[in-house]
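User: what does the whole thing look like in 3D?
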Amino acid sequence: MRTNVTMQDIANKLGVSSVTVSKALSDKEGVSDNLKIKIKKLATEMGYRYNSAAKSIKDGLSYNIGVMIPQRFTGPNESFYLKVYQQIALHLDSYGYYGILNILSNEDEQLLNFPRIYSENKVDGIIILGQVSKQYIETVQNMDLPKLFLDFYDEHAAIDSIVTDNFYGAYEITNYLIRSGHREIAYVGNIYSTSSIQDRFLGYYKSLLEHGLTLDHQLLLNDRDENGKYIDIELPEDMPTAFVCNCDQIAFELCDRLNSKGFKVPEDCSVVGFDNDIYATLSTPQLTTVEVDIDQMARTAVKSIMEKVSNPNRQTGRILVQGKIIFRDSVRKLNDESATTND
Amino acid sequence: MRTNVTMQDIANKLGVSSVTVSKALSDKEGVSDNLKIKIKKLATEMGYRYNSAAKSIKDGLSYNIGVMIPQRFTGPNESFYLKVYQQIALHLDSYGYYGILNILSNEDEQLLNFPRIYSENKVDGIIILGQVSKQYIETVQNMDLPKLFLDFYDEHAAIDSIVTDNFYGAYEITNYLIRSGHREIAYVGNIYSTSSIQDRFLGYYKSLLEHGLTLDHQLLLNDRDENGKYIDIELPEDMPTAFVCNCDQIAFELCDRLNSKGFKVPEDCSVVGFDNDIYATLSTPQLTTVEVDIDQMARTAVKSIMEKVSNPNRQTGRILVQGKIIFRDSVRKLNDESATTND
DNA sequence: CTGAAAGCGCTTACAG
DNA sequence: CTGAAAGCGCTTACAG
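Assistant: Here's the predicted 3D structure for the full assembly of 686 residues, as structure tokens:
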């Protein structure tokens, strides 16, 4: 049933050599226009399809990029990394490449196993999408392939990385709260949990410092345990006027909790999030938040990995992708100063 | 920098032939245990990696399956198909296969272009995930490869398909409402929009028929225009006691709308959804709904396409994957009969 | 303009 | 148990 037409088949029918067919189909020099047209026509008629495996073996390239996502970030309600993967696949397409998704199982991460895409030479480069354990980072370093960390980084590993500018995003949105007249501002998030959450905290802290506000440890609210499992947020006794949440989902939960305790958002407390994901528009009120630019992250990641494929010594370092504040209805202005002015 | 060790390199170092190395590494007959151990050890030391392109060219198989999702189903807040793709990739792994994601652009769908994964022979089979146009279905039929429709089907195309049992799921959940004492029950959804929505409507209708209830066209509420764009749901003058929604997102919107109009769910009206996606738990109250078994769909799709790869004549027909009702808080019991009894 | 030869990395079938 | 030869489908470098 499968036709499986080869260049040789076309050559035979036309009484020419497969070299000529190859040249004609790839528009190379050295075939008369007349013959070229005949060859192309016959190829279409015979349903010829290019065999990319043959090209791969010649070039030593698979024309695939592996995208590895740790299993733990793939729960039923998590789709952020899948979205990023989708954009990566889209951008790879414009380079003539394909994206192969590889979920890194907890077991393989624990046992420090190489992924099959690596040991079978299925890819020309690997994008690791989502923080892996310190030990697995070493395993990644031992892989003899271009590789890139996406959405996290590691100080010890000399592996290029692309991350959202978490620090600056949190800094900006905290500045916005302060410009809006807020002075008691809480941060919600476990600052020992991931580098993203920690960096967002530091951006918040920098904003406080710059405005001469002191960091009140009573206003650092935990939202998850060491394993990343969400816990109930304990509201402080002396309530702040605003909350900077490490992500929209937590901001969403916080709004719920505040509402149920009788606090109105934003009348009694303002709440801001981070990510601009689905939770930002589903919460009541809709959240003012920092949008993570998924498309730009994917675009940058693809550009960077493709450069490394053609030049394995290429170093791109740590690239920060800017987010931008999306203004919605969860912040109350406590003063008269225009709140939408930039710093 | 890339080592790129081949079997020949190993053979040279050991003064044997590459045939022997090949046999040793793939645990074939015909190599002494002693030599086999030496070869394996050296292979590890040299960082040897199998070249799957060479295998592909020998076998005429790419060991990839393409998963094609029409662009229109990949909006920023849509992740259902990406979840399905993720599960497909996971299940393919256990067959030694990989999943290549291919977003079918609106343009390519319009122009009836073959996807690159097909014309470059990158895959051994294609799963089309999400309804494509009638014309594109013909294009798919012309592809000389095992193929499968996932989450939709077409009466004219003799292409095997796997769908959620939309009909039966809607039938069951409507039965449940009727058992709970409801008699005026609306259906929310554009019944000309997709086969899924239409089939869910028919399941709802069958339940009415079986219980001697008449279909009231005032209670068929539209939720989207011909292009699939959501429109505001118009509530009927004579309110029903329950609403069967074609999906959770619409049920979520409906709850919002009912709440804002002063109707309480489920006290004044009951609402049920379909899908059991993120909207089911984010709505107030949480929704009773039909869960679509994503994992089972992916598992079945992978099994089916793998069978077709090894035997292109294999026909699997239209396979229905059962969902199950998830009971939550959006249905009020209007009678005393136990509402959780099965029919 | 056209094509014979060699080679990419591996495996299969066969010979020793 | 071990290996020389041929071949998978294509391309490159070279010769005519």
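In plain terms: Residues 7-50 of chain B form a domain with the 434 Repressor (Amino-terminal Domain) fold (CATH 1.10.260). Residues 6-8, 18-19, 22-23, 26, 28, 50-51, 53-55, 57-59 of chain B lie near DNA strand C (CB under 10 Å from a C1').
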